[in-house]
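Team,

Forwarding the record for the chain on the shared tracking sheet. I've put the sequence and predicted structure together so nobody has to dig through attachments.
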Amino acid sequence: MLDCRMTTGTRSDPLSRIEEKLLSGDRLDSADGLALLRSDDLLRLGRMADAARRRQVAATRASEGRADPAGSAPEGEPPDDVYFINNRHINHTNICKNRCELCAFSRDEGEDGAYLMTLDEVLAKARASAAEGATEFHIVGGEHPTLGYGPIRDMIAGLHEACPDVTLTAFTASEIVHFAEISGMSEQQVLLDLKLVGLASLPGGGAEVFAPRVRGMVCSRKISGEKWLQVHKLAHRLGLPTNATMLYGHRETLEERVDHLLRLREAQDETGGFQAFIPLAFHPRNTRLAELTLTTGVDDLKMLAVSRLVLDNFAHIKAYWVMVGLKLAQLSLFFGVDDVDGTIVEETITKAAAGEAGQAVPRNELVRLIRDAGRTPVERDTFYRAVRRYEG
């Protein structure tokens, strides 16, 4: 009779050695990360990443002294919670001095399609979403070469005044550096000033890939990877939690992907201020890298799984459904993912690169796809506090 039981391989198998390290609590190194990304055993990677997710949940709950919610999981097991947020993206301008090679969104001032929202336009979008229960505004835009810092500060202050119960997650590290340059302040002064008027956290965008070789080819005018890390660590020390990203699937090597993850892990060891990691699949259409092809589903699932396995100090790994699609985001829940982002409402950056996943998704659709995967949907706020658990 054919034995169809799954095996873990031999001790000489790289994945077996990695599994042993994970079970013993040892950290993965660069060679381990490469072995995982080069492996063709996708389902095994998924099992490893899902086990790591469950260990992370158990460790997090134990460190916080929390018991599992009644009925959410069998006794002694961590809950299979999957998070999403009722949020709205607001991209206030696409005018940008950097014009990165990988960007389909940015425009020069005066170019066809360039725009800069007025404060009233921003507030109108915000009020409409707040009325529908949004708990977060996600705000990023281009680095406008002639717009002063004052209107940026006024936008944050105006949003906070108009919608005081909605968390403002705003600006990439590169934008923060830009604001410092145009205002004559330091990055610390900018962060403290924006925090004073309502900024509560930073998104993780603009990290791309940290390797200088890659940045020279895809975002040559943007801040360095080291500067990105410095700004985020500074934000953490000032009481502003942040997310982290990596844009993959363009000019980077697998070695450079792993290096990016390890540098994030090192920064998290130092500050503990990263809330989630979001691998972002590159969309090349309408960019100056349009000859490249889209990442495959296998590549996307590998990247999500390896992120969970290498980033052992990140509580949450997010599948950004806008870039990978809702169906693959659902499948990723078996590959170490515990967050599918949110309702979003109006995503324009990936849309500019001909993204086909859409710009918005209703809350009930996110609940449905999480439930159909056998997991418990949890609507969260920016800081991963439960707004509503969809049990039963």
